[in-house]
Design goal:
507 residues; alpha+beta; eight-stranded antiparallel β-sheet; two-stranded antiparallel sheet; 16 helices; 34% helix
Length: 507
């Protein structure tokens, strides 16, 4: 059986890519608007011109109209204020069992790395018990222009798009439009009869490959857990698969993970004609499975993937900047990497998101802010709902964040080794899932789930600690695995549960 290679010798590994309570009237990360009192005091002047033009048929009618308009402005001001406050509630760290002093270590470490020119800048967020205790921006958003990093900076999410698409698929499953054990060919007939590239060693010891029919069809379930037999040309060690992907435009050696140049129909044809690297259900191999899952979502819903996510996920969660491309007025907030990777000296190449891609790449294509992704992660931690909007059943979230590999993961590189250079992780339906408090050489709890992006983004959700962590950079180099582990260590050392009761007592 062919085993994909993916762990560097230094242990860093290949890179993969209840409702929130209202705590603060001026939540961290939200541009501050005038206070309710200030807006109220200005209300008459805002509409003075309009009131002056009202025909004065009677003094009483005019008075009633004035009162109505003032009340209307007050109500609108209050509604906007509440909506903004609910978007990202905050808390003092001690209120949620975190130490302010220890959280301060995050900034010191990240600033030192930025000053050493390891990466341009970062946004870091720590939320616990439904409230944001730490939200800071460091360094530069654009190292060429010198524009500072800000909390509303937009990042290319790359593979952190995958959990969005997994969520979309599970929404369709909840509606009965998809059954997880359905063969992919039910939605995309071209995948009915796939071939597998099987490695063999000839009598002289030379590695060769034989193409044989797949033992069974891949299913939607296989796509969700990366056991479909598909691959990434950037990662797979199966040479015929790599060659087929390169020929079809699914793999570009000089521009990693850019499959957005093919139209959906072209992508489907290319993937269906390339051989699989394994029989479906036999090996976990990180792959274009979720790109294909995006095509399944489109076929099952009759809607473009970006439109489905906008209406069913981004809009209900108020993920204001999440998208697959950006309009001109938002491009100035887009984070940029160094021209060359500081560790390797190779050019950093990232997607141009200034115009819509040919296909909405479900594996790599979305962008958004740290706050956007925080709201998605908090929805998952809440069991599928946020601010009264339920997107998934609690039972579906449990299913997505459970082990779906079993012994399959023992047949090659494990999800933890790919993502973090450590063992101890399996894979669910869209996320890597930690199996034990131990086994992985980094802090965390059994049941936490996570993923990351090739351009330097990383998130995790820890249900036992009621914690969400996000580190957002735009640094595509191999060192990004190191920073995932470093940030995670700094977050967990800041947990100080004894501070929360003390804070409550003082109040």
């Amino acid at each position: 059986m062919n085993t994909p290679r993916g762990v560097l010798r230094d242990g860093r590994g290949l890179q993969a890519d209840p409702p929130l309570p209202l705590i603060s009237p001026n939540p961290i990360g939200v541009r501050q608007s005038p206070s309710f009192e200030h807006q109220h005091s200005r209300a008459p002047s805002l509409f003075s011109a309009q009131i002056a033009t009202i025909p004065r048929t009677s003094q009483r009618g005019s008075l009633h109209m004035r009162r109505f308009l003032v009340l209307l402005v007050v109500f609108a001001s209050f509604s906007v204020s509440v909506a903004q406050a609910q978007s990202l509630p905050s808390a003092k760290p001690e209120e949620v069992g975190l130490s302010t002093e220890r959280l301060g270590r995050i900034g010191k470490v990240l600033q030192a790395e930025i000053q050493a020119k390891k990466f341009p800048g970062a946004v870091a967020v720590v939320a616990r018990k439904g409230r944001v205790a730490y939200f800071e921006a460091f360094g530069a958003r654009d190292p060429q222009s010198g524009a500072p990093m800000t909390k509303d900076t937009i990042f290319r999410f790359y593979s952190m798009t995958k959990p969005f698409v997994a969520t979309a698929a599970m929404m369709l499953a909840e509606e009965g439009r998809i059954v997880l054990t359905d063969p992919v060919s039910k939605y995309l007939p071209a995948f009915a009869k796939m071939q597998v590239s099987v490695p063999k060693v000839d009598p002289t010891g030379r590695l060769t490959y034989e193409t044989v029919p797949a033992a069974r069809e891949m299913t939607v379930y296989d796509l969700l857990r990366h056991a479909s037999g598909l691959a990434y040309g950037e990662i797979t060690a199966n040479q015929p698969v790599k060659d087929a992907y390169a020929k079809a435009g699914l793999f570009h050696a000089d521009f990693p993970y850019d499959q957005r140049s093919l139209a959906p129909a072209e992508e489907i044809e290319a993937l269906s004609k390339a051989p699989l690297s394994h029989n479906p259900g036999e090996v976990w191999e990180y792959s274009m499975s979720v790109d294909l899952l995006g095509r399944v979502v489109e076929a099952a819903s009759g809607t473009k993937l970006s439109e489905f996510l906008e209406s069913r996920l981004f809009k209900p969660l108020k993920m204001a900047d999440a998208a697959f491309s950006l309009p001109k007025d938002k491009l100035g907030r887009l984070a940029q990497p160094f021209a060359n990777d500081p560790a390797t000296g190779t050019p950093n190449k990232v997607f141009d998101v200034s115009s819509p891609p040919k296909n909405d790449a479900g594996g790599v294509g979305s962008v958004g802010t740290t706050t956007d992704y925080l709201r998605f992660a908090q929805m998952m931690l809440n069991g599928g709902q946020l601010d009264g909007a339920r997107l998934l059943s609690r039972t579906t979230v449990t299913l997505m964040t459970s082990d779906h590999l079993g012994k399959i993961k023992d047949n090659g590189i494990t999800p933890g080794e790919l993502l973090l250079g450590v063992k101890g992780f399996t894979f669910g339906l869209g996320f890597a899932v930690r199996q034990e408090d131990g086994l992985a050489a980094m802090p965390g709890r059994a049941g936490e789930y996570m993923w990351a992006g090739a351009a330097g983004t990383f998130f995790w959700v820890d249900p036992k600690e009621q914690l969400v962590g996000l580190l957002m950079t735009q640094a595509p180099g191999p060192s990004r695995v190191y920073y995932r582990k470093l940030f995670k260590q700094l977050v967990y050392q800041a947990i100080a549960d004894e501070l929360a009761p003390a804070m409550s007592a003082s109040r």
